[in-house]
Amino acid sequence: MSDEPEKPGGESTLTVLLAGSVNLAIAVMKLIAGIISGSGAMLSEAAHSVADTFTEVLLLTALKRSSRPADRLHPFGYGKERYFWSLLAAVSIFASGSMFALYEGISTVLGHGEAQSTSVLSYIVLAVAFCLEGTSWLQSLRQVRRDSKAENRSFWTYLRLIDDPTPKTVLFEDSAALVGLLLAFGGIGLHQLTGSEVWDGAASIAIGLLLAYVAYLLGRTNRGLLIGRQADPQIVRGVRDHLSSAPEIEAVVDLQTMLMGTDQVLVCTRVDFDDALGAADLERTCVRLAGELTEKFNDVTEVFIEPVPRTDPELRATVLARYGDIAERWNKQVPGAQ
Questions:
Q1: Is residue 221 a contact partner of residue 84, using CB atoms and an 8 Å limit?
Q2: Coiled-coil ranges per the record (predicted)?
């Protein structure tokens, strides 16, 4: 995970601001070209850019609101607000972008769309939009690549385990935008070559399906984070190894982690301490171990340690029910890491 929490003024904010500015400018250009030409694909692309612009507004809201400090009503902070607003961003891509594109495409294919004319303006707008979208896409790609390299992970593994949905959302929507522009270009070009509006409508339908798929991927990511996904497996392994190596601990009986926000991990563990420890020794050990974990793992922000006997049958049954066969290999693997 990253060494420092992402701040609202950090690179994620730069990525979102750049993407939002680009999408707003492109949306205006596409809308003008779509109205002039009557192209369903161009109007679908305009709706696509409007949806992306609204998405950036939601992502900026996520960055700002999730950075608020903990208070009495939210003692663990507001980190999960980033996941909530990012989920709304995914919904907006589907609702305002995908649905409109599908409607335009189906209407055009069925012959119910507006009369269309081929205009060189459409090609110019698509070319300019591709260059602008490419700039935003390169910024988001650079951020993800840099972050994945910092964590010594492959690009795709980092995207799968990322706990900050902001750069992933921008990267995915910009990638979809570039593909959508190529689809629109193909649809308009085939319409011009064949004289059939079906190609324009088909391109619009393809854009709608593309946006629906991207919305699904982003929605699935944020759903898992909102529900309470466990921490990065590397952190889980490290926490368990650190606890197991403590001389006062005879066995780590249970270990649970949860992402509370970007770079915020909650650790709850049940351990069997050496029975020779007194109450004061036990208290000092818990405080020391919690401090060591938060210092060693920058993402760990809260640690709760509960002393338990490892032979308790109810506790053992609970661990088995949660982790299944992995619990049988407890001393060799981290629960839930696979």
A1: no
A2: none
Please say whether the beta carbons of 54 and 96 come within 8 A: yes
Q: Side by side, which strands form the sheet with 249-261?
A: 249-261, 264-273, 300-307
Can you give the residue range of the structural domain that contains 267?
233-329
First to last CA, the chain: 18
Between CA 84 and CA 62 the distance in angstroms is 8
CA distance 22 to 177: 11
User: Could you say which of 199, 227, 255 is where a domain stops?
Assistant: 227
Written as tens digits, the pLDDT of the chain (338 aa) is 444 444 444 567 777 877 777 778 888 887 787 777 777 677 777 777 777 788 888 888 888 888 888 888 888 889 999 999 989 888 888 877 888 888 888 888 887 555 455 567 778 888 888 988 888 899 889 989 998 998 888 998 888 888 888 888 889 988 988 998 899 889 888 888 888 888 888 988 998 899 899 999 999 999 989 988 999 988 999 999 999 999 999 989 889 999 998 889 999 999 999 989 999 999 999 999 999 999 999 999 999 999 988 887 787 777 777 776 554 554 444 443 33
Shared domain for 218 and 294, answered yes or no, is no
For residue 176, which of 42, 48, 264 has the smallest C-alpha distance?
48
Instruction: Count Cβ atoms within 10 A of the Cβ of residue 17 and give its class: 0-12 exposed, 13-18 middle, 19 or more buried.
Output: middle
Q: How far from chain centre, in Å, is Cα 296? A: 25
CA–CA separation, 230 and 128 (whole Å): 43
205 and 102 in contact (C-beta within 8 Å)? yes
Largest CA distance in the chain: 87
Q: What is the CATH number of the domain that holds 289?
A: 3.30.70.1350
157's tokens: 């593994």
How far apart, in whole angstroms, are the C-alpha atoms of residue 62 and residue 82?
4
Task: Enumerate residues 6+ apart whose C-beta is below 8 A from 156.
Answer: none
